[in-house]
Amino acid sequence: MDTPAHTATHDIVIVGGGLVGASLGCALAPLIERYALKVAIIEAAPLPAPSPQAEWQPSFDARASAIAAGSAERFRRLGVWQAMRREASPIKRIHISERGRFGATRLSADEVNVEALGHVIPNAWMGQVLHQRLAALDLEWHCPAKVERIAPQPGGHRLELSDGSTLSAALTVLADGGRSGLKEQLGIDSHQAAYAQTALIANVGVSEPHRGVAYERFTAEGPMALLPLPGNAMELVWTHPAGEEKARMAMGDGDFLTALQQAFGDRAGRFTRVGKRYAYPLSLVTAQEAVRPGLAVLGNAAHALHPVAGQGFNLALRGVTDLVETLEDSLAAGGAMGDMATLGAFDQRRARDRRGVVRFSDGLIRLFGTTLPLLPQARAAGLVGLNLAGPLRRDVIRRAMGLER
Ligand SMILES: Cc1cc2nc3c(=O)[nH]c(=O)nc-3n(C[C@H](O)[C@H](O)[C@H](O)COP(=O)(O)OP(=O)(O)OC[C@H]3O[C@@H](n4cnc5c(N)ncnc54)[C@H](O)[C@@H]3O)c2cc1C
């Protein structure tokens, strides 16, 4: 039987306590306090005992993420930046190039008068900091517990959990990464375009100090990124045509380092060691609807992008803060939680940024992934041109910093 609107057990239920769901929980702190909101987060993977190397759930695994300057500012407002920056490496310069071609683009923090264009932070560390902050807030945790069924009902949604409990929420936020089947249960379609590429991720040692340089290099096999980590270490994101990563995953460390050196060249110095390797199949997935009455879709559930431009989480965090600001405006004006006027305003506020970032990331991959005869020259010219001036260059800098255009 349907629960009547006024008996929703919760004002907000967040499905997924990964990077996005946990950030949203932290961002809701002032509203929880001011309006005594009843908020729950449901996370399927168990929390481990805290340790700097802890790998514990899909969001907070061995990856490190490039966190744009705009995102650092958002984390600062959430009260977590001081702790985050303890394990963060500043990006002072970004070097974009194409293997075997003349032309490179350098973007530097100095030219835009900032201390850093962004920071690289291990996901596991971000997870610990966010969850420590969450533990201090007055919100409910269901973990480990999976949302198995979701269905609309008057005044919100009804959620059935794997631990046998049932919740009803005026506003449900899907931050489940998009692979749990909940969008499909609700009949929300997604546009999917496989890149036919797999990203191989590993932590690598380098012989030279990286001096805060992040590299993006476009090779015949696909794009690679090397991001600075504390000490003489860098995070490698190496894209392979789907299936071809298997041989590299299986190689001994010595052979892997030789192959990496060949593909990347010696601009970052000599690769001296490699940590555990992980593989992520890549596709562009965009949900066709980001809001419905009583429902908002955030993070990877709304948009999963190619990782080479480092945009996915940065875009999602802008969505998190925009959602909270829109809810705040609505509550201050006496609006009801989850009403479509509020969620529609939120969606409108996000649409331009979301479209821009999806086009930018996808366009970058397609521009550098094409093998038409004249394109290498055009790309090199583009890179050189990018180094001189022009709107594309400004666009790249602004996107790298996590600013909307
Ligand atoms: C290789 C790689 C490198 C990347 N690098 C960057 C980068 O440098 N910068 C950047 O901005 N972005 C980067 N990204 C993108 C970034 O990782 C994602 O945007 C981010 O992880 C999305 O977080 P999320 O919380 O939406 O989803 P997820 O990380 O998938 O987390 C979803 C959470 O929901 C939980 N869950 C799932 N189903 C259920 C359920 N039914 N009930 C309860 N809980 C559930 C899961 O256990 C998980 O904890 C990268 C992505 C990849 C693949």
Automatic annotation (TrEMBL):
Asked if Flavoprotein is a keyword of the record, the answer is yes
UniProt-listed PANTHER family: 2-OCTAPRENYL-6-METHOXYPHENOL HYDROXYLASE, UBIQUINONE BIOSYNTHESIS MONOOXYGENASE COQ6, MITOCHONDRIAL
* A single GO molecular function term of this UniProt record: FAD binding
Native organism is: Vreelandella subglaciescola
Q: Which Pfam families match?
A: FAD_binding_3 (PF01494)
Which keywords has UniProt assigned to this entry?
Answer: FAD, Flavoprotein, Membrane, Monooxygenase, Oxidoreductase, Transmembrane, Transmembrane helix
* TM ranges: 12-32
FAD-binding domain residues: 11-332
Question: Annotated pathway, please?
Answer: Cofactor biosynthesis; ubiquinone biosynthesis
Question: A GO BP term, please?
Answer: ubiquinone biosynthetic process
Entry protein name: 2-octaprenyl-6-methoxyphenol hydroxylase /2-octaprenyl-3-methyl-6-methoxy-1,4-benzoquinol hydroxylase
